[in-house]
Amino acid sequence: MTQRDRAVIQASNLGKAYGDVQALKSLDLRVPEHSIFGFLGPNGAGKTTTMKLLLGLIRPTSGSSTIFGQDTVRDSLAIRSRIGYLPQQPHFYPDMTARETLRFTARFFFTGSAPEIEARVDEMIALVGLQDKADRTVRGFSGGERQRLGLAQAQINDPDLLILDEPAAALDPIGRLDVLKVMERLRERTTIFYSTHILDDVQQVSDTVAILNHGELVAQGPIEQLLSGGDSPMYSLSLRGDGEAAQARIADLPWVAGVDVARHNGTTAWQVSVTDEATAEAQLLRQVLADEHVTVLEFSRKRYELEEVFVNIIQGDDHGRQ
Amino acid sequence: MVGNSALQRTKGQVWQRGFANLFGKENRAWWGTRRWAVQTVLWAVVVNGMLAFIMFGVPVLLQQTSPAEAETFDAVVQGVQALFQLGTVALALGAILIAQDQILGERQSGVTEWILSKPVSRDAYILSKLAADAIGVVVVLVGVQSAIAYGLITLANGTPLPLAPFLVGAGGLALHTLFYLSLTLMMGVLANGRSTLLGVPLGVLFGGMLAANFIGKAALLTPWSLAAVLPATVLQLPLPLPAALPLAVTAALTVVAIAVTLRKFRQLEF
């Protein structure tokens, strides 16, 4: 069984209702081992609710979920000993220093001599760049410093799964970059399940994403698949010459769903959406080149930006509800 | 890497996971800071200051203003009664004030959510606070103050009072204080606002004392009777019912409050 086949998190029909309000509706989720799994969705979509369900902080009203094959309700304590969690707005004891906070957190996971614990604490402080703030009380920490401390405490137990709720939300661009580097570095030995609004970050580090809207999963899959258009791929062509006849002929092909045309500075840009990816890859360029009145300047499969995919999916889902 | 170090993963019974760490943290808040000293001085002034005034100050004042009354004024009896009557109320108030922020404050700030995302049982979270505060309250509010009071009473009396009845009295005072500590911790779980949290234990304390006037002899079984039962026990005066009865009822109510706290906290969502 490969790492891709092994699921660290699995949810089946997982739901949470608060009275009449359905915060999460029948979520089916699968987070592969050693993936950096981006959990996306607009505010109020149910991301934090899902994370809290997985951590046993709230109880599901329907369905079930497992982490490491263990039930998140029944075996929550055993699961939490292998997890690191960063809440959306981390809060710690204000009178403790960063070092004391990490020492306190470490003692939930480890027994051992004080120097061993201290070494682990020092390692985490260095990892998040809080060396010069380590002995200050958390009370005086900025949002970014609190977030860094949150990241450090989440990793103190060398977790098999990191659940991060908006890990870079309060960080400046450098801090954000540091977080992404840490996540990349941890990929080898842990699975990271994180929510964020910063889609650039997701595109940079995630290998799998899920998109949640109004408490429902609206898309899930490898990020490459989403960025390449999923089930409706599109090809971009840049042409010179009179392409009207070619356009009509291409649009009539049975595996072509549509051709959008835009003209700019003497060149014509086509966006060809297709229904049969394999045939399109083999035939599309050949079909266009068959027309001697056009010259193909560029041909490529259109690669979406995650933001574009995200907005399309969310808006499409919202329109479907109206 | 952790795997290569001498660090060992914690183990233990499910209910006690995280208890030692949380209990250590709560104990440090009592004994690793100035809290114990501040509380000791504060309650020494309130409880024993009042006791000293009654036993040493009032007789002097009476000598100057009403020598006849001074003749009949028994400083030791008055002191013991004041210690246990006012002491029960004052120390219950102390316990309420100490416990008021322990659970609700952490729930509202998000600290509880953070703690419970670690391998910590919910029972351990509650019991660590209860145990640490119970030790702090019993030692600082009751133990130290009772010892000082015993010294003051001995000084006023010329000879020590019988120790065993005094220890029963101090034990009753401790139990009464623990009841209000448990009640306030329970309200930290049940209430979502500070006014309810404080209102219920204060209502039980003062409302109960008023209500006890209207329920006849049944009042002798309640915690509110301890203000009268404890000084009578220490002074070895006759009682209509054994002192063990209201003590047992108070202990039972304390256990009920703890049980409700544990049960409701297991159901809370964060």
Task: Explain this structure.
The complex is a heterodimer of chains A (322) and B (270). With 322 residues, chain A is an alpha/beta fold. Chain A has 2 domains: 7-227, Rossmann fold (3-Layer(aba) Sandwich); 234-301, Alpha-Beta Plaits (2-Layer Sandwich), CATH 3.30.70. Helices cover 35% and strands 31% of the residues of chain A. Chain A is built from 11 helices and 15 strands. Chain A has helices at residues 47-55, 76-80, 98-106, 114-127, 143-155, 173-186, 199-205, 223-227, 244-251, 277-289, 306-321, and strands spanning 7-18, 21-32, 36-40, 62-67, 70-71, 83-86, 110-111, 161-165, 191-195, 208-213, 216-222, 234-241, 256-264, 267-274, 294-301. In chain A, the strands form 3 sheets. In chain A, strands 6-8-9-3-10-11 form a 6-stranded mixed beta sheet, sandwiched between helices. In chain A, strands 2-1-4-5 form a 4-stranded antiparallel beta sheet. In chain A, β4 (62-67) and β5 form a beta hairpin. In chain A, α3 (98-106) packs across α4 (114-127). The longest helix of chain A has 16 residues, at 306-321. The mean pLDDT of chain A is 89. Chain B is mainly α and 270 residues long. Chain B has one domain. Helix content of chain B is 75%, strand content 1%. Chain B has helices at 19-31, 35-65, 67-72, 75-99, 104-109, 111-116, 122-157, 163-190, 194-211, 226-234, 244-267; one strand spanning 8-9. The interface between A and B is medium-sized, with 33 and 29 residues. β7 of chain A pairs antiparallel with β1 (8-9) of chain B, so a sheet runs across the interface.
